[in-house]
Specification:
Layout: H1 8-46, E1 67-75, E2 81-89, E3 97-101, H2 113-121, E4 125-129, H3 144-159, H4 162-165, E5 169-174, H5 176-184, E6 193-199, H6 205-217, H7 225-236, H8 244-249, E7 254-260, H9 269-279, E8 285-290, H10 302-321, H11 328-338, H12 341-344, H13 350-366
Parallel strand pairs: 3-4, 3-5, 5-6, 6-7, 7-8
Antiparallel strand pairs: 1-2, 2-4
């Protein structure tokens, strides 16, 4: 006897098919979402925290004779308050404004106060700021494009100031700051940016994600890179879709690119090499390769590198003698007793900065207004 249309056998088969479909869809969704979830974990392992400049390494304006510092806070579109710093010298009539963008992981812009000193001595006003999640700014570091978002907001903040509105602007950035100043050129217009100095930077946000993810989770983490890019795109929108290359193509600014051949943080080919491949024949670009310099000492003089190496050697010997059993107060005491503040505030390669300033000067002379 055959089962009818509404028989228990027919209904049983129908329910079984539905269960198979539901399970299949659930498995498919899980397979699709799992890598995305893991990508979020990878991203959060790199970001989602704060960075503070170590007290023993901080500069003060007193370390630089004649340097005058004033501070002002401004807000991002997300409502996060950022700390800004203006540097000048008494009686200075600035021929331009240099905006300095710091790197990733070392705290805020305090480490670049020596650069501000050089630029003010060359006749420029300087503005620096702590990106979100760094030193005196609020929030946390949320991703690579966040630095670009914060820099764009900083430029808008400066454009609102009468004393800077019609001055030529120069952007100077190191490491992530180097990427950010180039990437920001995709999003700012009519801001009078006529020169850029990119130092030890990279070309797109995924470059640093690759480096950090491999260091923290091994090369297997690279299989998640497409999902990480998608995660970042959903998080930051347009700010994650552009690169340093597209930004530099979007601008007619003069450009200086500097990179150390011993850089083991951002490989030479990742930054300098790719930019040289794109712009090596462009007359508005000047490329400076420094074969014996690394990442954080790329703009130090040879004498400064030797001094820091000797200081670190002495510190290591003291640390070993104490069997590593030291407190923060012990460390601060060692630095106070042994660190030569004059040498510490005179690390920069004046010859290298003279080349940067020369490009800035030429760009300022050719500047005709916004």
């Amino acid at each position: 006897m055959e089962a009818g249309a509404g028989s228990p056998e027919k209904r049983g088969k129908s329910r079984k098919i539905k269960r198979i479909i539901i399970v299949s869809v659930a498995v498919a969704v899980t397979v699709a979402l799992l890598p995305f979830a893991l990508a979020g974990i990878v991203y959060s392992s790199v970001f989602g925290r704060r960075f503070e400049t170590e007290a023993v390494r901080k500069y003060t304006s007193a370390d630089f004779e004649g340097l005058v510092e004033t501070r002002e806070r401004f807000k991002t579109d997300r409502g996060v308050e950022l700390q800004g710093y203006f540097y000048t010298r008494e009686g200075l009539e600035p021929k331009g404004l240099v905006v300095v963008c710091h790197g990733f992981g070392g705290g805020g812009c305090n480490a670049y106060m020596d650069s501000a000193d050089v630029f003010t001595r060359a006749g420029y006003a300087v503005f620096m700021f702590d990106a979100a999640g760094n030193d005196l700014s609020g929030g946390t570091v949320t991703g690579v494009p966040q630095y670009t978002v914060d820099l764009v907001k900083a430029i808008e903040f400066l454009d609102g100031k009468e004393e800077f509105r019609n001055l030529p602007k120069m952007l100077f950035g190191h490491s992530m700051g180097g990427f950010s100043i180039c990437n920001a050129l995709n999003f700012v217009e009519d801001s009078g940016i006529c020169a850029v100095c990119e130092m030890s930077g990279f070309c797109e946000s995924s470059d640093v994600i690759k480096i950090e993810a491999v260091e923290r989770m091994g090369r297997a983490s690279l299989v998640l890179l497409p999902y990480v890019k998608l995660y970042e795109a959903l998080k930051f929108g347009k700010y994650s879709t552009k690169t340093a290359v597209t930004g530099l193509k979007n601008s007619d600014a003069r450009v200086v690119v500097i990179h150390g051949g011993l850089d083991d943080t951002i490989p030479f080919e990742t930054g300098y090499g790719r930019l040289y491949g794109e712009f090596g024949n462009d007359p508005r670009f000047e490329f400076i390769a420094l074969p014996e310099r690394g990442h954080n000492n790329v703009d130090w003089s040879d004498a400064a590198i030797e001094y820091v190496a000797e200081f670190n050697k002495g510190y290591s010997a003291w640390y070993a003698a104490e069997n590593g059993e030291i407190t923060a107060e012990d460390r601060a005491g060692y630095f106070a007793e042994h660190l030569d503040r004059k040498a510490w505030s005179s690390l920069l390669d004046e010859g290298l900065y003279a080349k940067i300033v020369a490009v800035f000067d030429e760009a300022a002379e050719d500047f005709t207004g916004k």
